[in-house]
Amino acid sequence: xxxxxxxxxxxxxxxxxxxxxxxxxxxxxxxxxxxxxxxxxxxxxxxxxxxxxxxxxxxxxxxxxxxxxxxxxxxxxxxxxxxxxxxxxxxxxxxxxxxxxxxxxxxxxxxxxxxxxxxxxxxxxxxxxxxxxxxxxxxxxxxxxxxxxxxxxxxxxxxxxxxxxxxxxxxxxxxxxxxxxxxxxxxxxxxxxxxxxxxxxxxxxxxxxxxxxxxxxxxxxxxxxxxxxxxxxxxxxxxxxxxxxxxxxxxxxxxxxxxxxxxxxxxxxxxxxxxxxxxxxxxxxxxxxxxxxxxxxxxxxxxxxxxxxxxxxxxxxxxxxxxxxxxxxxxxxxxxxxxxxxxxxxxxxxxxxxxxxxxxxxxxxxxxxxxxxxxxxxxxxxxxxxxxxxxxxxxxxxxxxxxxxxxxxxxxxxxxxxxxxxxxxxxxxxxxxxxxxxxxxxxxxxxxxxxxxxxxxxxxxxxxxxxxxxxxxxxxxxxxxxxxxxxxxxxxxx
Length: 494
Description:
Distance between the termini: 51 Å
Strand order of the largest sheet: 1-10-7-4-2-3
Structural class: alpha/beta
Number of helices: 23
Radius of gyration: 26 Å
Helix content: 40-55%
Shape: globular
Strand content: 5-15%
Number of strands: 12
């Protein structure tokens, strides 16, 4: 995972600080509600949305069950088309491969298409350590890079910034990275976009190396696909002489025909568009004398915890994710806490289940992420590939509480229960004993009902963290069993 998030506090602490930022909450509320409403309208236009969603789920599950076979087929197809495939087990290996490939070209700068995988491994930082400057060309990523910031949304990394903040970033920072912002730049969208366009154009025309990710890889043809809305990706994918694509191994689809489903569901779920303005598709290399495109193509297939995630029968459904970000835009927790609180390039509900699986739950922040949800289920309802995020969250909470050995990077490691979970585990064991002894449960219920006027409004000890943000449920005047016996003629059903 990206080094930029190392050392961040657990989610509750980070979220507590974020919710106190009124500007942040206002920016998030406006942006997420706007995208959410547009998405709902775009999806409502499709009469067979439920069938498309189910088709996407089945394609992804089919592929994941046969991932080893499709990865080999993909390598053969890419190689046959003139590309070179590299395998990276983790972030360090992927960064080393890409750095060496760039150095081999003799270049000291690269242009980048927006890529979650390269953010995940901290590629920009790795390149910088070797004297190579990486220029982000996506508008939102450019804002984040110029502002020395971190992305806070999968689709719109600068969603936490408003137009005035973006204008100030352009004015103060653009000159240090190339062409400065125009004099008298205002915060109107057209002027901000034009400033970014002028700033990036010289980089597009000069760059000899481009780096991208991919939304999809087609096993049968060796084709890679990038969908975008601005056109910067098209420039990075066609102008440089060398193209290096870093892609997670789960991004495969078996056949060209499978793209039909995702090219309908992804744009509607992400940008609320019927289709993406730019869908760039490339297979292997091209002869520069007759066509646009790179003369050298390298594909770096990234594992970085995905194989371990695949081994979890419940958690593996997170690998279906097509990075649409629909779950973030409907999540009440994300809307209030923002993306930085998740301590990962994958924020929101999908990040809460993906990051702990890719990184493990040994750290405080990863152990806290499965709890960064109210389990309302809104994320599952909008997911275009039907990932049951609440189910995985509960599954990961069980893993955190119970601890125990799991496989991580091919090695057995022991997950220690997070701080405060010992009391929760003891309470669950006590509840299990009580529910398995009806007599003791009945006696306890009666004692609780008779003493209800003495009950505190907050719980003591570790329970204080729970009751600090919740009202304790009121205790009824009599237990349910007593009410049942009184109203149903003395019959007691156990």
